Amino acid sequence: MLGSISAEEFLSEYWQKKPLLIRGGFDGDPALITPEELAGYSLDDDIESRLIQHDNKQQRWQLSHGPLEETAFQELGEANWTLLVQSLDYFHPPLQQLTKACNFLPRWRLDDIMVSFATENGGVGPHLDKYDVFLVQGEGQRRWRVGYQGQKVSSINPHPQIAQVEPFEATMDVIVNPGDILYIPPATPHWGVSVGNSITYSIGFRAPSIGSILDSLLNSQSLEFDSLWHDEGKLKKYHAFGALHSELPDWAQNELKQLLNRRELLIAAGKTVTELKYPEVLETVNLPKAQELSDIAMSEGIELNPLARIAYFEHEQALLTFINGIYFQFPIGLEKAIQKLNHQMVLSKSDLEELPRLPVGEFLSHGIALGALKLPE
C-alpha cells in the first residue's frame, strides 16, 4: 500500500505529520463497489449516509441525511453532488481488502471505511479532519488540493451541518487515478473535486480521546465511586453562607488517585480502543459451542475476522488482552500469537502447537465466541 516507501519511513516521516501521494499504492481491483450498490446502502435505516449537493451559480449547499428515498436519486442532475456512506467495511465485505492492506498500522487505530460517489464537480468542499485518512481512488478520477498540517485557514459553514474552510493555498494539486492513494494527516486542509463520475474509499484512523477512556472508567463494574466526603471538625460558620470548603477538591483528587491506578487505566484504555461500531454484525456463538470450535481450530488453524480488534498490554507478568472491547487476562506467552494474527490474520496448526495448550484454548474460545476469530474457510 505504501509503494516504494517502507513502513518505517512512512511512520517516521509522514504519519501524523505531512501528506503523501502514493501512485498505484493499492494493487488490488479498485472496483470494490458499484454506484448502484452504494445507493442501495444509503436507503438502509442502520447505515449512516449523506447526500450533499452544491449549486455553483448561487453558491448554495444542500445536505440530506439517510436513510434516503429511492426517488431522491431520480431528482438529481449529472453534476455537483456526492453521496457518502459510512462504515461500509462492516456491511460490504469486499472493502475489507483495504483494511488488510493497512497492516503496517495498529488495527485498534482503524475506525471505518467511508465510500463516496461523486458526479462531475461533486465534493464536500475544502475542509479539515481531526483524524488520519487514506483516500484510495476507486473508479474515475478526482482532483485533490492539499495544504499542510497546522496551516492557518478560516472556518465557514455554508450549511448549518457542513463544516468547511475558506479556499487555501495548496502545496499539492494532483489528479488521482484508480488505485492511487493520498494520505492526509489530521488538521491538514484538503479539497477533493470529482472529474466526471468517481468513487473514493476513505480509510479513517481514530485516536482515543481522554473523554472516552474516562467514560469506560466510570462504567467499570470493578470500581466503586461511593466514597463520601467527611467534614467533621472542618466546618466553620462562614461555610453556611455559601463558601465551599477549600479541602474538597484535594479530597476528590486523592480519592480518584487511589481508584484510578495504572491497571484500571490500562483496562479502560484497552477496552475503549478495541470497541466496534457495529459488534452485532459479527457472527457470535455461545461459549460451549466456541470451546468445541476451538478444539477443531487446534488441528485446522484459525483466522482473524477483518472487522475484529484484538490488542494487549503487558502488565505485572500478565497479558491484559482486549477482544472487541471485552477484557481478558492471559499469561505472558500469547503475545506472539496476537501479533501474528494482527499482521498476517491467520495462525496455522503449527503456530498453535507452539503455544501453551490451556491459555491458547481459552483465548481461541473467547475470540470465537465474540466473532473475532473463525475457522479457515
Automatic annotation (TrEMBL):
Domain of life: Bacteria
Membrane spanning residue stretches: none
InterPro entries: JmjC_dom, NO66-like, ROXA-like_wH
Domain JmjC: from-to ranges: 94-222
Keyword line: Dioxygenase, Iron, Metal-binding, Oxidoreductase
Signal peptide: none
Gene Ontology molecular-function annotations: 2-oxoglutarate-dependent dioxygenase activity; metal ion binding
Essential cofactor(s): Fe(2+)
Name of protein: Cupin 4 family protein
Protein species of origin: Kangiella sediminilitoris
